[in-house]
Specification:
Number of helices: 17
Number of domains: 2
Strand content: under 5%
CATH topology of the largest domain: Growth Hormone, Chain: A
Shape: globular
Helix content: over 70%
Order of helices and strands: HHHHHHHHHHHHHHHHH
CATH architecture of the largest domain: Up-down Bundle
Structural class: mainly alpha
Distance between the termini: 14 Å
Number of strands: 0
CATH class of the largest domain: Mainly Alpha
Length: 431
């Protein structure tokens, strides 16, 4: 194994890395909750909320690759600290200066912009800390992300709002990010003298020629980018189309829709548990394949809930869900299995695809590789999402769900073809 691929640190450094992740996610989501509360309670809530959402997405497309290039130039260790300090500066400024909903999008844009340096640096550290099991490390990061989101947005933010108003929410977010900066500095100190402290010197400074050559030669990385783009499209399109389909076309009430959250969460948990136990480097591509096929099948099954799938369900143990052979009850039983499969597939695809990028990209390109992947995922789904919304309104949700299933399956097939191309050095190393 090359020197840059050796794992570093052990349990203490890995624990510090994961603690940094959890504190960052918690504080970030307290801050995002403050922005959404400010925008959502204004006199023009719809416009202000859409502005905040757009302000969080645009920097990933416009500035993401440049942030990744800067992360590579500084090295993950220095870029992580610089990005953490930039986030703190933005949130501290919001705590002092944000006085109306019209300013929320400005701070959302600024926070997302500095995050384009922090995020690729954070993901690049997986290669240094957990080189032999990158998929498992990314699964842990995803679990900490979900935990921080739940704690920050749905527990701390409401409690702080009740106790001290919006000001208390913003001050707490700033305090959390200050603690995060301290943890990032400590982590950087632990990583001194390692590959994470090494900066690259691309020519030109923001050059991407070597990254383009990497994607052209390493089909598994191209497969990962395709998988993440398909995953992002499927997740967002299903959020648009599935509730409309279940409520308007199948007549499911709010209680039945809420009930689908439980198997969805169980799917996420099972995906995280599966990735945490066995997702080593050699299993990453098969895991991507499994997750994309599962996601495609779930979308196609969702489009057929009131057709053949439900009819088949009545001839299987799923008929136990039915009361006096109720078609709606059988459809709900199938919908619960679809939710379970979607939760599992979305989780595994994210961990496996990011693991592939960590395992295959050279360390001095990782920031740019992750940044380009994120920019591609955000850019390519804009038009399909607009079409999904218009299609669900004009044609009904079923064609949209079917199109999602076909698109994900097509991405899987193209990715399988691309994965056959591997860098000669990587193939020789495994021979």
């Amino acid at each position: 194994m090359a020197a840059e691929d050796r794992e570093f640190g052990g349990a203490h450094t890995g624990g510090l890395f994961y603690a940094t992740r959890f504190v960052a996610q918690t504080a970030q989501n307290v801050f995002l909750a403050a922005l959404f509360l400010t925008a959502g309670t204004s006199a023009r809530a719809a416009f202000d909320l859409s502005s905040v959402f757009a302000a969080t997405l645009i920097p990933a497309v416009v500035f993401g690759p440049f942030g990744g290039a800067l992360a590579d130039r500084l090295g993950p260790r220095a870029a992580l600290v610089a990005g953490a300090a930039g986030r703190l500066a933005v949130v501290a400024a919001a705590a002092v200066a944000m006085s109306s909903a019209r300013e929320a999008w400005v701070f959302a844009f600024a926070y997302s912009t500095v995050s384009q340096l922090y995020t690729p640096a954070e993901l690049s550290l997986v290669r240094v800390l957990r080189a032999t099991a990158p998929g498992r490390a990314h699964a842990a990061l995803i679990a900490l992300q979900y935990g921080g989101q739940g704690l920050g947005m749905f527990v701390l933010a409401p409690l702080l709002l009740l106790a001290g108003g919006l000001g208390a929410v913003l001050v707490t977010a700033a305090a959390g990010l200050a603690a995060h900066v301290v943890l990032a500095v400590l982590l950087g100190y632990r990583l001194r003298g390692t590959a994470a402290a090494t900066s690259s010197l691309p020519r030109p400074v923001f050059g991407f020629g070597d990254v383009a050559a990497f994607f052209a030669a390493e089909g598994r990385a191209a497969y990962a980018v395709l998988a993440l783009a398909a995953r992002s499209l499927a997740a967002r399109a299903m959020v648009i189309a599935l509730p409309v389909y279940l409520a308007r076309e199948l007549g499911f009430g709010p209680g039945a829709l809420a009930l689908l959250f439980l198997p969805g969460a169980a799917g996420v948990a099972s995906g995280l548990a599966w990735c945490g136990r066995g997702l080593r480097a050699e299993a990453l591509v098969p895991a991507m394949r499994l997750s994309l096929v599962t996601l495609s099948g779930a979308a196609l099954a969702a489009a057929s809930l009131d057709l053949g799938v439900t009819l088949a369900a009545r001839r299987t143990p799923l008929g136990l869900f039915a009361v006096v052979d109720s078609g709606a009850a059988a459809a709900l039983g199938v919908a619960m299995l679809v939710a379970l499969a979607v939760g599992f597939a979305l989780t595994v695809s994210l961990a496996a695809a990011r693991g592939v990028l960590s395992a295959t990209a050279p360390l001095d390109q990782q920031g740019r590789v992750f940044a380009i992947q994120e920019a591609v995922s955000e850019a390519v789904i804009v038009l399909p999402l607009l079409l999904a919304g218009a299609g669900a309104h004009a044609l009904g949700a079923r064609p949209v769900l079917a199109a999602v299933g076909i698109t994900v399956l097509a991405a899987c097939l193209v990715g399988e073809f691309a994965a056959a191309r591997r860098r000669p050095a990587a193939a020789a190393a495994q021979a």
